[in-house]
Amino acid sequence: MYQAGIHRSFRASHYLDVDSVEEMRPHEHRYALELIVVGNELDENGVVIDRTVLDDCLTELLQSVEGRLMNDEPFFDDCPPTAENIAHYLCDEMANRLTGEGLDLTRLARLEVRLWESASFWASCVREPGAKPQGTGPSPRKRAPSGREPVKKPRRQG
Question: Hey, which of 12, 79, 114, 150 would disulfide with 34, CB 3.0 to 4.6 Å?
Answer without folding.
Answer: 114
